[in-house]
Design brief:
about 110 residues, alpha+beta, Immunoglobulin-like, 9 strands, about 20% helix
Amino acid sequence: MCRFGFVLPLMFACLALAAVTAAAAEVEIPVTIEKNRFQPSEIKVKAGEPFVLVVTNKDATPEEFESKELRIEKVIPAGKTMKIRVRALKPGTYPFVGEYHDTTAKGRIVAE
């Protein structure tokens, strides 16, 4: 019984550390909104691996990052930076828009 009292907590600690390490290893991709446009407008990612978009809005008005294909809608306030976690994607192209300026704020994520 004494061994299990030591092994079980150690096992849970290792699992928690592995989860934290996996989350910390996610790739962060900077994206800027400026003059109602996304920069870069094309983002290439590795298929099958989650990533984080770090979106900075340099405009004086808010913008909404929206992708129906990715099921993401996130308002980025003026002058703020927000992180958007994106699940692992299958190979393909996933468009996104700035819903408040959808004629100029366009982009796509290409998973290869």
